[in-house]
């Protein structure tokens, strides 16, 4: 196991009726900016619960943060923060709202002239404007980590950012919110969180037994929970396990002391930027071809995964590893997610070259746990996903 440091300062408030506790977590006298997405929180009752909890605070609202949070819209929110001297933010939504809030947390204290530099120059945020979250859509793990992904439509860019200053102060996780989530979004949450675990697990053995077992447990929980939560989102037991598994998949714990990959995500971001494909579905598109292309360097962990997660005990390491890849694709398909790029666009010719070129332009020329995946490799992997 490699050396590591681990600190996660986010307070998790989990369970039924916990939204009412928000007032206890925000400093008294704060001027609060509440951020949310397309307005579903006003239809499912979450908005009323949040506003009731904030009745003692001066609250300004900012809605309209869409999936793949858009830089131009976030700049409007940044103007509000500065004009009204906001000192605390509350993100009420899924990963996009939370990620957008993280960008605002960084940008609000950024001393430079152009906030986009935070992303293009990969400037880590060591101190941000404090914020809390109310999670309404389990998927990204953004409620308990310090990373974010922001989109800029005019340049077709989707870039990452992060830093120790971007952990939420607190996050409220009430599994009851899952009951109002459309099945497509639940499927996305399952695929997104499952791939988050794979990116931190599917590398090579390093004798990190605890990290491996926790990762395998999260994946087994998602597999076991998927049929129940897809069939009945109001099933509280299933919703609770689904929500917590999504959080645990990317709160930093299982990646400590181990090599990590993230090539699937880097390539997937480009497919979203180019075609608007749901982030989780880009991961499902690329997973099989990525593991097949890098089979020789990953086969030991693939075989371990097949044995421990899918109970495949027969065959050689290579046979079990190949079965593990097939099981992964079958899992995505079982929750209604297509796994080929051609299922989403007929305009895919030339995509592989463009994805490779876009990554190369940003200096992302050594991807994967071995930093051995070049733009040429990226092109081949994406072609295999057509």
Give structural notes:
With 386 residues, this protein is an alpha/beta fold. The protein folds into 2 domains: 11-176, 3-Layer(aba) Sandwich (Rossmann fold), CATH 3.40.50.1970; 183-384, Dehydroquinate synthase-like - alpha domain (Dehydroquinate synthase-like, alpha domain), CATH 1.20.1090. Helix content is 47%, strand content 11%. The chain contains 13 helices and 8 strands. The chain has helices spanning 46-53, 71-84, 95-109, 117-120, 183-201, 209-231, 236-249, 263-275, 279-293, 295-310, 317-334, 351-361, 375-384; strands spanning 11-14, 31-36, 58-62, 88-93, 131-135, 147-152, 157-162, 170-173. The strands form 2 sheets. The protein has a 6-stranded parallel beta sheet with strand order 1-8-5-4-2-3, with helices on one face. Strand 6 and strand 7 form a beta hairpin. The mean pLDDT is 97.
Helix content: 40-55%
Shape summary: globular
What CATH calls the topology of the largest domain is Dehydroquinate synthase-like, alpha domain
Structural class comes to alpha/beta
Strand content: 5-15%
Q: Radius of gyration over alpha carbons?
A: 20 Å
Could you give a short account of the major beta sheet?
6 strands, parallel
Low-confidence parts lasting 5 or more residues at pLDDT below 50?
none
Beta strands, count: 8
Looking at the overall shape, the CATH architecture of the largest domain is Up-down Bundle
- Cα distance spanning the termini: 37 Å
């Amino acid at each position: 196991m490699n050396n590591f440091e681990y600190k996660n300062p986010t307070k998790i408030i989990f369970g039924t009726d916990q939204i009412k506790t928000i007032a206890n977590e925000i400093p008294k006298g704060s001027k609060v900016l509440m951020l949310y997405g397309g307005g579903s929180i006003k239809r499912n009752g979450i908005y009323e619960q949040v506003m009731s909890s904030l009745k003692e605070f001066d609250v300004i609202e900012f809605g309209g943060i869409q999936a793949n949070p858009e830089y131009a819209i976030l700049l409007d929110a940044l103007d509000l923060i500065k004009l009204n001297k906001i000192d605390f933010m509350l993100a009420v939504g899924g990963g996009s709202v939370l990620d957008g809030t993280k960008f605002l947390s960084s940008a609000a204290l950024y001393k430079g002239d152009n906030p986009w530099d935070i992303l293009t120059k990969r400037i880590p945020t060591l101190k941000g404007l404090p914020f809390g979250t109310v999670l309404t859509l389990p998927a990204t793990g953004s409620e308990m980590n310090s990373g974010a992904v922001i989109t800029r439509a005019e340049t077709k860019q989707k870039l990452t950012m992060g830093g120790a200053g971007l952990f939420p102060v607190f996050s409220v996780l009430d599994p009851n919110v899952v009951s109002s989530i459309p099945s497509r979004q639940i499927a996305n949450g399952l695929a997104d969180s499952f791939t988050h675990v794979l990116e931190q697990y599917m590398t090579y053995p390093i004798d990190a037994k605890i990290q491996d077992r926790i990762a395998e447990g999260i994946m087994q929980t998602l597999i076991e929970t998927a049929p129940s939560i897809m069939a009945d989102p109001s099933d509280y037991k299933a919703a609770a396990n689904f929500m917590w598994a999504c959080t645990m998949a990317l709160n930093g714990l299982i990646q400590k002391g181990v090599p990590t990959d993230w090539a699937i995500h880097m390539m997937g971001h480009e497919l979203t930027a180019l075609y608007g494909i749901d982030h989780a579905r880009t991961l499902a598109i690329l997973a099989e071809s990525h593991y097949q292309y890098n089979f020789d360097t990953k086969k030991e962990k693939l075989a371990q995964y097949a044995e421990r997660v899918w109970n495949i005990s027969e065959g050689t390491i290579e046979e079990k590893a190949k079965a593990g890849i097939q099981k992964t694709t079958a899992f995505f398909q079982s929750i209604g997610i297509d796994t080929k790029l051609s299922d989403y666009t007929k305009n895919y010719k030339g995509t592989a070259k463009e994805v490779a070129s876009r990554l190369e332009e940003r200096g992302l020329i050594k991807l994967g746990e071995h930093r051995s995946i070049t733009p040429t490799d990226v092109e081949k992997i994406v072609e295999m996903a057509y």
